[in-house]
Each structure stands twice: as C-alpha cells, then as structure tokens.
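Hey team,

Sharing the Protein kinase run so nobody has to redo it. Sequence (270 residues) first:
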Amino acid sequence: MSDLPGPDFRSLIQQHSGDVADIRRTERGFMSDITAVVESEKGTFFVKAMKNKPGGRLDSLSRERLVNPAVHGISPHLLWYAEDEAWAVLGFEYIEGRHADITPGSPDLAAVTDVIDRIGRLELPDVAKDWRETRWDRFAENAAAEAELFAGDALLYTDIHPSNVIIGAESVWAVDWAWPTRGAAFIDPALLVLQLVAAGHTPAEAESWADRCDAWVTADPVAVDAFAAATVRMYTVFTERKPDSAWLRAMANAARSWTEHRGVKVSPPE
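Structure output:
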C-alpha cells in the first residue's frame, strides 16, 4: 500500500520490535499520522506515530506516553518509545477486541459505564498536575465564575467515544489517551451522557447509566448544568465553523436535548 511508512520508519522501530514482517494500517486513528498493527520478530504491537514537528499533535502523543503508567489495567501498556528527526512513535501491547456498542439495548453498556467509573477512581499522577482542563472555560456563560465549577483534581480521560472503548474477551479497555487533563471528576461521566444521547438514548436513560459512576452521583447539579450549557455553546460554535460536519451536528443536537431535559436555558455563545 502506498500510504505505508517507508524503510526509515521501519528502521526506527526495529530497535524495539526486531525484524518487521508486516505493518497493517488501522481503520481509525484520524488524529495520528500513523496508527498500525506491526507484526514483528518480537511480537505484535499497536503503533501510534506522529511526525516529529512541535505542536499540539505531538504534544498529545507526549501526554499519552507520560500518562500511561498511571492508567495500566484500563489502557494497554506502552512497551516502548522511539524517536528520530522525522518520527515520534509509541509501541503498545496489542489487544484483541471490538469497538463498544453504546446504542440503546446494547449488552456493552454496563461494561462501558464500568470503565468510566474505574477511570474516575484513578489517582491523579504528578505528571498530570499541570494539565488543567480548560477547553470548556471560554464557553461558560460567566467564565470567571462558572469555569471554576469545571476545575478539580481528578484525572480526566475526556476522549470518550465508542471507538475508544475496546471490548475484549476478558477485559474492557479505554484506548487513545491523547489528551488527559486535570479537572472536575464529573466531566468524564458527563461526556458519557452526551455520547449516549447522540447514540439514541433519551437524556433520562443516559443519565441513569451515568448513575453507575461515583463521580456522577456525587456531582454538584449546578456544575453539571453549567457544563451542559457550555457544551451546547461549544458545539454551536464548532458547527458554525464546519456546517457540513455530520458528527458535529449530532453532538450539538445531543447537547441541546440534554440541556432541555435538565431545564437549562442556554444563552447564545458570544
């Protein structure tokens, strides 16, 4: 295939993998320059790579590398890291499984909510203490006050999506820790609610699944309302920028449905 990495890439990873027999691109992994399954002398690895250029995408790869020791048992182990002038590469243990189904009636729903609850029980590692969650702050109605409701000392996953939850024969994995942050513990369950509504659940049904997460049960309803409203404003702005994006429209509609259910009036974004 013409889009497979060249011999320089193979040479870089061979110090960890041994001789490479095959590299198969994965179907997903849109935010990475390469995501692939590597069959090699030393075993099978899942490889995630970015071109070694300073910026947000490379920063996300660095965060994923640094946070991995704190999320063992929930995320596959990072086994090695390789870098040269062209590439930065993460080599993970390869796990067998399928993407979760979060539509109404799915048998995966309990496992998905369980893994989100497990994430909420993790200790905040030292490496994440400066990774303050700020993405919703500018969409708060009163940034000076409401944004403080989104602050906290929980390790947040934030990239909750059915394609990032892998159902294996004996384990459930949350993969792609591209942008972990430190913030209010309720945010991950709240993002699960949003995904469930987008997948076809009513907001009440979605929140009933979130009730299985301690961080949701103990959340301040005022903070959740403010976050839900900020999420509507966020996706309203995003859809205005990319009006042809179906998934952005779906998320905006889900967020509006959720705020309506909670009785939250949402002022337009500034």
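The radius of gyration is 19 Å.

Ping me if you want the raw files.
A.
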